[in-house]
Design the sequence.
């Protein structure tokens, strides 16, 4: 019985070491770069989609160019809120990771 | 070989012209490389899972690592409810990864450097996730557009903003992958062109740049596939675990 507990202890330690050494470190830095690349397009895409919606509505209501202009700014607002939201998500993930340690 | 850096993105027909009604569905080099990457994936996974040795071979290790990477990503970001969608996300990740990586080979064609390819993938994800959301929550899924604690007079504006930001998901998803791949490959080609035009002595500097950029491109090829898959998980998470 004693041998088993000893073995499980040693396994636990070995697992911790393996987790620490191998690819968690590496993966973390690469996913950080990934999220950094993410933010830029998030902003641009919302502006783009907003302007497209405005353009389509303009064609519908025959009100060129006002709705395009308005929806451009609404899209910019949506883009900023997108960026803030994903930054918050990143912050949460970061905090959780710190807590786990 | 043309010196135009955009020449590598040309899509040309291989074989006869086939059209379905008015739509041209001829076999192109893009389709060829998609088929090549699909076949590579199938053969790698087949060889990797054939002999389930306790001490794995390199190729078995590769398949097992990619399995754990994706399964961990799903359980971390979307929770246990997303487990049934593992096959889809795994195939998506592996397909994008192999398309990106095969594009790094000289004289090959990068499928993911075309917006139509990435946008189709993103649109499938977007429509699928929206359907999943409506199936799971019914009309309650529309609450996604109404954040809690917003004063009533601001609500119309907020809803419009939320709808725009929801619709911008497939655009940002596809543009990110496409722009990264296309910019990287163009840059490689431009620096490669400098090496040729500057000759042996002057070409050393751009050559070293090309080598460094190739390393960076391989990193980006992996990273963009990873980001593509992880964002799919995040969107799936919104559709499965609606929180408000």
Sequence:
């Amino acid at each position: 019985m004693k041998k088993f507990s000893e073995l499980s202890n040693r396994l636990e330690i070995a697992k911790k070491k393996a987790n620490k050494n191998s690819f968690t470190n590496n993966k973390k830095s690469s996913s950080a770069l990934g999220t950094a690349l993410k933010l830029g397009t998030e902003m641009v895409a919302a502006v783009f989609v907003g302007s497209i919606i405005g353009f389509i509505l303009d064609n519908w209501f025959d009100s060129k160019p006002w709705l395009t202009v308005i929806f451009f700014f609404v899209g910019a607002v949506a883009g900023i809120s997108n960026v803030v939201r994903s930054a918050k998500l990143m912050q949460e993930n970061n905090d959780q990771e710190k807590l786990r340690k | 070989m043309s010196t135009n850096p955009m020449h590598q993105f040309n899509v040309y027909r291989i074989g006869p012209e086939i059209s379905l009604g008015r739509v041209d569905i001829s076999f192109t080099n893009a389709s060829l490389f998609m088929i090549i990457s699909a076949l590579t994936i199938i053969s790698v996974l087949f060889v990797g899972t054939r002999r389930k040795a306790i001490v794995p071979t390199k190729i078995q290790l590769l398949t097992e690592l990619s399995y754990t990477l994706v399964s961990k990503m799903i359980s971390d970001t979307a929770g246990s409810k997303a487990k049934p969608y593992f096959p889809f996300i795994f195939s998506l990740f592996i397909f994008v990864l192999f398309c990106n990586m095969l594009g790094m080979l000289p004289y090959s064609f990068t499928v993911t450097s075309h917006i139509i390819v990435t946008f189709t993938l993103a649109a499938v994800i977007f429509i699928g996730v929206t359907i999943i959301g409506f199936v799971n929550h019914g009309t309650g899924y529309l609450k996604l557009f109404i954040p809690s604690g917003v004063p009533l007079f601001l609500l119309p504006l907020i809803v419009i903003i939320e709808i725009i930001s929801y619709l911008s998901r497939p655009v940002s998803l596809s543009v990110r992958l496409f722009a990264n791949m296309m910019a990287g490959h163009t840059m490689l080609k431009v620096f490669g062109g400098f090496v040729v035009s500057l000759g042996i002595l002057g070409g050393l500097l751009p050559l070293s740049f090309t080598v460094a950029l190739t390393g960076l491109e391989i990193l980006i090829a992996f990273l963009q596939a990873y980001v593509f898959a992880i964002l799919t998980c995040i969107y799936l998470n919104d559709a499965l675990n609606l929180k408000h």
Notes: Chain A has a mean pLDDT of 80.
